[in-house]
Amino acid sequence: PGLVDVQPHGPPEPRRIRFRPARANAVLGTDLSSSEMGALLTSVGLEPSGESHSDPGEQFSYVAPTFRPDLAREEDLIEEVARLHGYDRIPAPAHVPLPARPPREGRARRLRRRVRELLAGAGLREIQTNSMLSKPQAERFLAPDGGDDRSENGPEDSGVVETLKPISEAMAALRPRLLPGALDAMRFNQNQGPSAGLRFFEFGRVFRRSERGTTLPGYAEHEALLVALSGPAQAAGWSDDASDPRAADFYDAKGVVEHVLLHLGASGEVDMEPFGAGADPNLAFGLRLTTTEGTPLGVVGKVEEAAAAEFDLEHDVFAAELRWPTLAEAAAPRRVRRYEPPRRFPAVERDLAVVVPEAAPAGGVRRTIEEAERTPLLREVRLFDVYAGEGVGDGRKSLAFELRFQAEGRTISGDEVDAEVERLVSLLAEEHDAELRG
């Protein structure tokens, strides 16, 4: 009986598309007549809808064939005219008009550009990785903030966003994190031969299923910033031992994150809380970052050895992944830099060692000191020692800070500095249960 064509939705409706020859000539920069354009379009199955091609200023209507679902609007027909007429026969314009004033750069794009320049200046290379990966790998690297949405009831509740009709199993899901793409890039670069170390960063979007999604119902999507370090921390210099270079470690990754926060003026808006094994499915240990208002910002830590082993990496990997919209919102407005002459009067330095609960973050204690009221003479605070063990008590640790005091128009006395330090000790005792170390 022949072939049977099963169409569950019925035969497609014919699409009538408006076409203006004058607009086609304006877009393409050609001088074709309406009859020439009509001949080109009808040669590929388009049927005119009753009008003649006598006046190039008129509008015409064409019916697209059902085997050309890509033809849906006037621009598609203009593209067909260009393709059939020949791109090489379209003359190049003698000049291209540009707007008299370039469009203003938005705040988010400006901040992104600043961070790109900052990280490139710090020796990191920007990468761009595929946003699609295999479903097992997507489930392996599912972000921890999607844990509430995980379920064994099926793909609808797995937390992973699957692609429709993937061209291969390797592209069956959208990435829930930037980390797997960075690890794959590290593997590729590692296999090209010895290098001075792998220092990458990437801006990209991540996706997952979530009942709290705002982009689309049931889906969550946001832009993220990734930093990944592995291998030697830097290229060996003439005075370094090339046979045993220092490997990148957790503090290198944490330092890059702090460098970004400081540059954006967000250091005082972020808290860091340590976590250990099991808290993140992809990190062995690290720090969880939140804003002072409690909004999750991201993590920085050491990548699990099992995760790195999937990519055959030779060295430990340390990575940070931050939610870019949250970070951009926490960034302070850029201040106009003004020249400040060197201070003529000497500074006074004092060391302050306090014992605090072991869970108290050093950054929070330091921020309390920096933001303390009634200490106008305090110019600089630097943490130089952390100690836990004999002499400070169980569940406690010692934090030692170097404080620098200085006045603008006079020499300050030791009594004034003593009074400032006493006020700081009282404030730390109230805010962090701190006591002066003997």
Keywords:
seven-stranded mixed β-sheet, alpha+beta, Phenylalanyl-tRNA Synthetase, Chain B, domain 1, Alpha-Beta Plaits, 438 residues, four-stranded antiparallel β-sheet, BirA Bifunctional Protein, domain 2, single chain
Description:
- With 438 residues, the chain is an alpha+beta fold.
- It has 3 domains: 15-89, Phenylalanyl-tRNA Synthetase, Chain B, domain 1; 108-234 and 245-330, 2-Layer Sandwich (BirA Bifunctional Protein, domain 2); 348-436, Alpha-Beta Plaits (2-Layer Sandwich), CATH 3.30.70.380.
- Helices cover 27% and strands 24% of the residues.
- It has helices at 21-28, 34-42, 74-85, 107-121, 135-140, 179-191, 250-263, 305-309, 324-330, 362-370, 414-432; strands spanning 15-19, 47-48, 60-64, 125-126, 132-133, 173-174, 198-209, 219-230, 270-275, 283-291, 296-303, 317-323, 348-357, 378-387, 396-405, 435-436.
- The strands form 4 sheets. Strands 4-7-8-12-11-10-9 form a 7-stranded mixed beta sheet.
- A hairpin with a 7-residue loop joins strand 9 (270-275) and strand 10.
